[in-house]
Amino acid sequence: MTEEIGVGMVGHAFMGAVHSHAWRSVHRFFDVPLTPRLAALGGRDAVRAKEAADKYGWAAVETDWRALVARDDVQLVDVCTPGDTHAEIALAALAAGKHVLCEKPLANSVAEAEEMAAAASAAAERGVRSMVAFNYRRVPALALARRLVAEGRIGDVRHVRAVYLQDWLSDPESPMTWRLRREKAGSGALGDLGAHIVDAAQFVTGGLITGVSATTETFVKERPDGAGGRDEVTVDDAAVFLARFDSGALGTFEATRFALGRKNAMRLEVNGSRGSLAFDFESMNELSVFSSDDGPESGFRRVLVTEADHPYVGAWWPPGHLLGYEHTFTHEVADLLTAISEGVDPAPSFADGLRVQRVLAAVEDSAGHGSAWTTIGDTR
Amino acid sequence: MTEEIGVGMVGHAFMGAVHSHAWRSVHRFFDVPLTPRLAALGGRDAVRAKEAADKYGWAAVETDWRALVARDDVQLVDVCTPGDTHAEIALAALAAGKHVLCEKPLANSVAEAEEMAAAASAAAERGVRSMVAFNYRRVPALALARRLVAEGRIGDVRHVRAVYLQDWLSDPESPMTWRLRREKAGSGALGDLGAHIVDAAQFVTGGLITGVSATTETFVKERPDGAGGRDEVTVDDAAVFLARFDSGALGTFEATRFALGRKNAMRLEVNGSRGSLAFDFESMNELSVFSSDDGPESGFRRVLVTEADHPYVGAWWPPGHLLGYEHTFTHEVADLLTAISEGVDPAPSFADGLRVQRVLAAVEDSAGHGSAWTTIGDTR
Amino acid sequence: MTEEIGVGMVGHAFMGAVHSHAWRSVHRFFDVPLTPRLAALGGRDAVRAKEAADKYGWAAVETDWRALVARDDVQLVDVCTPGDTHAEIALAALAAGKHVLCEKPLANSVAEAEEMAAAASAAAERGVRSMVAFNYRRVPALALARRLVAEGRIGDVRHVRAVYLQDWLSDPESPMTWRLRREKAGSGALGDLGAHIVDAAQFVTGGLITGVSATTETFVKERPDGAGGRDEVTVDDAAVFLARFDSGALGTFEATRFALGRKNAMRLEVNGSRGSLAFDFESMNELSVFSSDDGPESGFRRVLVTEADHPYVGAWWPPGHLLGYEHTFTHEVADLLTAISEGVDPAPSFADGLRVQRVLAAVEDSAGHGSAWTTIGDTR
Amino acid sequence: MTEEIGVGMVGHAFMGAVHSHAWRSVHRFFDVPLTPRLAALGGRDAVRAKEAADKYGWAAVETDWRALVARDDVQLVDVCTPGDTHAEIALAALAAGKHVLCEKPLANSVAEAEEMAAAASAAAERGVRSMVAFNYRRVPALALARRLVAEGRIGDVRHVRAVYLQDWLSDPESPMTWRLRREKAGSGALGDLGAHIVDAAQFVTGGLITGVSATTETFVKERPDGAGGRDEVTVDDAAVFLARFDSGALGTFEATRFALGRKNAMRLEVNGSRGSLAFDFESMNELSVFSSDDGPESGFRRVLVTEADHPYVGAWWPPGHLLGYEHTFTHEVADLLTAISEGVDPAPSFADGLRVQRVLAAVEDSAGHGSAWTTIGDTR
């Protein structure tokens, strides 16, 4: 048994459930240098928080996140709340010398994200680590994709094609939620889904987006408020944009919650001068790989990313035994615990989260100005 | 045997070969009211034209297209030349009272296309018919897609996702051709591939594109000229654009010759309020159909579009016996011959070709002005 | 224009239509040394035969196949009738010194097939050629598969998995046809579909089946006779069998007309010591290829078999432009005409057809004897 | 927190790791009436067992399984050892009044399985429950498949096509293991992989196999023993067989470890009179469903089995967020705990395991007698 690290998690909805699983399980599969102790769960409603703590295995409950941050038995704060509270919780935790894992998108505005990135950078000087939870970087197939690009197997990247398609808002009678309120969620499909594909595209290709042209749409303007009336939707239902990367690659991006029949189709295609890659999260254990070296019988290889020498896979099952969604979070906390122990900065950093935030802001800016090309400053 | 119609075809490269096959074969499979007679083939080089005529089954050869248009035994002129000569040949043929089938894109400029559409409209008054050869409308799967949208099975269209991916220019040493010269081809991937997906998207959804935001790229600026030097590429290698339809749908489009491993991936996805469609020309006998009526076991249906009640299929083989690329041209001329015989205007008309041309022009315009949103006027 | 060869075809149903297309078109695409002339079409009903001849482009009609065989302008007889007349027509044609193309299965019994193979062998001595029409050998993907096995790319073949799935009899109310009468068709799914996969498996792997264990089933015993009554089905609806090859490979085979939703799923999988292959006729332009040399990113390659250096493809369109079902017949007659001109025996020969027939007979024999292992004698 | 149940597990290799995860996690996701306490882990090597116990979260270690069975804090014994010890451990546990979960195949012989089934039946009278761990029944897609058949959605089942393909023995230099020794493993691919597809086919269709015709093969007779020599392989590398079900359906089965490129392709296809199903474990979150009611746009639906109303899925993540291999074990123990608490017999029972064992024995018997049809007695 390795040394323990006390974790305090704020928020216990969907993200809280899957993060809890990762904290409980990581040391059962990975040889992590720190063993997480599920010290305290934060939630405003004491009864519901207690239920969640019992269900998910947390030792204690705090109804005030400040109290959770202040606990002596908490050395790491995991922020699983909606985006409007990320900044204050994360900043307080860093200030208190606690390592931070923060859900994505990092913040609801560039200003907040800048403050967080600066604080994270300062904290790192003191050995306090922070990570933004772009868990899709930990899909073995996407980690393998990055490896292939980094090794030069794809050559110079020319095209990126990224979509994140869901359909849960397709029905106009689907009710209002906090995710459709700008003040809570920051944006709609853009921040929720677009953030993932922006980060994934940059992660896999190793390039940074330098400019965008965008438009957004809200197909259904009002939704049932649960009390017989209708509430205004104040975020985008869909966002589409063109992008250029510092590598010279061209990109197209689409994030939508209105692609009927697509449940979680986070898709990424990359075409380079030597090869191509294609990925779809609905088949997350597969990576399609094309190599121009393959000769007359070339074709996209359907690589089942379940071999022991594929990223993260060695910790799990034999070839052909698939992994699922929650494994990405287990990989994430494994990497975070290792980075903390080794005293290095984990990736994606808050600075990486800020870069994504700047792209999202540029998308909204372009969409508000007739799709005019909008550059993203200070990208490295 | 039905009444014959004399066909004269100008050009005998790739398009000439496949058009010849259609003219030779159409009455063997379809009960067309007119039987084509392959009267004359036009080509500037007498020797090569004669070889092609023998190979493809044309009775005579003309080295001057004007002579071909003037022949008494030619009632229909099929224009298979590069885009820079479409306008003059088609205009002359219409003026001579000959029906015209013209390869796409209709012309190399909006001005030419406008003149052609006006001439076609005037000719129609005199019973002379014209059609632009967007053959992908005659892929049974895409014709079925249009039928499903028209029947309301997809509901209101919200998203269109269209790409046309090829890879034959991916290698920088791939040599210069007329297709990479602006004065000959008009544009690059945009006019060659983009024209197809613009027409197909409008055809399938029944909507018209009203505005675009675009950018284009030439990845390889110079190519081997075959004489030891290098020639400047003056067209786009790739074009990407966002679009809005008059129906309110959002679209993303991409045309490229640099998508390594994609040989002819003309893909179209449509998401509506009741259902979705997905098509890939590399699997051209299939249409993926999602219906929100399908209940708890819903999923994209892989419809093998080879049933007798699917468009065009009844003329061919039993279910599961696939059709190929050239069948789309056979379907095209079957429809054209029927329209001529029935005295109605065939689709797609030159006016439809003009609409596509305007979209292409708007794409280039937007790309030249910082991707600024650019509207397409006079779309209906 | 090369020298002509007069073709006489007996039968003008489905197979007649597709063969006609091949004879009409082959020299338009392939540089064949003989140009087919569609001399005469044989059919018992003069009116229907004349209609078919006009439709398909045959110059004359004969209501007696003997007269057709005897015509001076016929040098090649194409037998497209049901299996019960293959033997007498083919034997008469060979005796008359006419080359023969005979539809599969070669005959309705081993005895007939033996007589035909002997006659073909004797005729070959006199320069008269014969071929049995296993057209699936001419699917480019399957021809490529054979090439890969022959080159050693798959290594020693260990497993063959072959199914041919259709569903047109799944409905018990589907009416009686000659294909369900033993005296006409010889057998049911076994001879119609099983013959194809037996030939294809032997063709691709280069091995011969040495023994089988089998069982067959007739799910629907009686079918509507079209006159209000019901007729007895006297053939198998489905046949399944295990097989061993002289190479040591193990095989499983299934032929059925009751696989609901499978329209023409002729599937072949081969696993060897160095690689694997998978094919499905419903995606006939694709071959899946796995190579153990591909290293950590190995996976089945989806090879789009539309490259100029793939078998037969150079005669057609650019990469990614698909071929269809009838192309296999065009390839077949191209090969036959070349063999005739070069004075060599074409493949598959009647001897190859006999080998398949012996396997089918062994399947029925085993099925009739408690699935007992049944060897196939004289296989090379 | 519900009442606890003490679990003792014997064996800590691959199966032990995945069972441990299930015991640790089940109550975090499912509202199970009993909460497992990981009381003791059994392993002969004290050091390795202790390491495993720490890694997997077991409170104690026993080096003698008899001591583990005898522990007061163990109410349920989980047997994860090779097949040669299943019988004695399970019988002892049942005799001691402990519930039993036993890995598959139930035993290495029919005689052992009969004794186990009899003991389980007797124990059930005393409220002691037993289950054999055919975990693939708990793949949501296969549970959904069974539901669809049971609801009549597929109609009468006519064809079953089941293969389980792996490739880890394809290389002749792959070393000897206990799985290749008859005295330890009972059989090779047959018992390891064939057992799964026999159970799954019976589970999904609701039919029982009544007879088989089979053959088996050992492609590589000797393998490296790790000490410079070679050891004899005494089990099958592959087994293929035909089967008939009491429902009248025909089946084909294949189990092999030599299908290069197939990592864990447990595939099941079912064709009925109203619909069809297809499943592949390498895409375990998908079920292909064909319904003859779907009309002219019918086709296999790719159902992503990740909806809340699909079996087991409600406990996990939103639609489109995939589950993996180990989830099947979590589902398994959830069902077992529920059955124990409710006082009902869980499925699959030892009697179900015995039925599978009888099929496996019949396969070996048939293979040893010239593939003669071999009936399976006493199937209900």
UniProtKB/TrEMBL annotation, chains A, B, C, D:
Could you list this entry's UniProt keywords, alphabetically sorted: Oxidoreductase
- What Pfam families does the record tag this protein with? GFO_IDH_MocA (PF01408), GFO_IDH_MocA_C3 (PF22725)
The source's domain of life comes to: Bacteria
- Positions in coiled-coil regions: none
Domain spans labelled GFO/IDH/MocA-like oxidoreductase = 144-277
Q: Which InterPro entries match?
A: Gfo/Idh/MocA-like_OxRdtase_N (IPR000683), Gfo/Idh/MocA_oxidrdct_glycsds (IPR050463), GFO_IDH_MocA-like_dom (IPR055170), NAD(P)-bd_dom_sf (IPR036291)
* Residue intervals of the Gfo/Idh/MocA-like oxidoreductase N-terminal domain: 5-132
Output this protein's name.
Dehydrogenase
Source organism per UniProt? Saccharothrix yanglingensis
